[in-house]
Amino acid sequence: MYVRAVAGAALPGFLWGGGDRLPQGSLRLEGVDFSDQRIRDYRRVCGEGPGLPPAMLHLPGFPLALQLMTARDFPMSALGMVHIANTIEVLTHLETSDEYDITVELANPRTHRKGAQFDAVTTATRDDVVVWREVSTYLSRGTRLADAPAAPPQREWPSASADAEQIAIDVPGDIGRRYAAVSGDRNPIHLHGLAARVFGFRTAIAHGMWSLARCLSEVESELPERYTVVAGFFKPVFLPAKTTLFIDRGAGEWSLLLSTGTTRHAALHIRARE
């Protein structure tokens, strides 16, 4: 599908560009499970923690989202799409031994000052009960969609407090390839510096979902059974990097900020659900 995305960027209107609206419909994958070995491999790359990593259910949904975004009737090029925000709702305890049915649809188109935004909504069900939901927000620069309302103001992310816990996180130069191996997301901007430079980056950059998962792993053992994670992605993490994670804790909530010096890369706000 990444080959199709590259070809579509070279041949707009032939492989993609079917109108000015998001296509209707969804894709579904049934009976998804995660072996103990796959969970261990993911944990080695994304950080240790208990049970099934909450961001791991993103993995089977992402190829479905990419399939929708490289379909002929999708009105934008998937190449160069920017993942700017992510929300994960954990609605019950996620069992490592269970099977999950995954459904993905594209929704909520809106106009952004730099182009168009939309959401890839992924739902995981177990015995027909929703146990996990994710909203991945993407920005397509220079694109306009018909009948798309203006995007709401961007969320304000506060700076870390003076007494925040600080954790040094060294991000190795091969983390893009390592995450690709456990996730299947082989976007070239994350794999090699030469490929990243073709798309305007000075070197390879870390996956946004790796940053989310790695930050989340530092507080997973503290989280209740039900919670919501809201994440914003700002400046890319150029590889390799020495970053700092700041953690502020409150009553039933956690605020995390990943940065390098004064450059903010990602922020997470986690709130316990009733």
* Major sheet summary line: 10 strands, antiparallel
Q: What assembly state would you assign to the polypeptide chains in this entry?
A: single chain
Helix/strand order: HEHHEEEEEHHHEEEE
Name the CATH superfamily classification of the largest domain: Hotdog Thioesterase
| Total discrete domains | 2
Q: What value does the average pLDDT take?
A: 92
Estimated helix fraction:
10-25%
Please state how the strands of the largest beta sheet are arranged side by side. 1-3-4-5-2-7-10-9-8-6
Structural class determined from secondary elements: alpha+beta
Helix count, DSSP H or I runs of 4 or more residues:
6
Q: Class of the largest domain in CATH?
A: Alpha Beta
Give the termini distance in whole angstroms.
40 Å
Which descriptor suits the 3D outline? Answer: globular
CATH third-tier fold name of the largest domain = Thiol Ester Dehydrase, Chain A
CATH architecture of the largest domain: Roll
Low-confidence segments: none
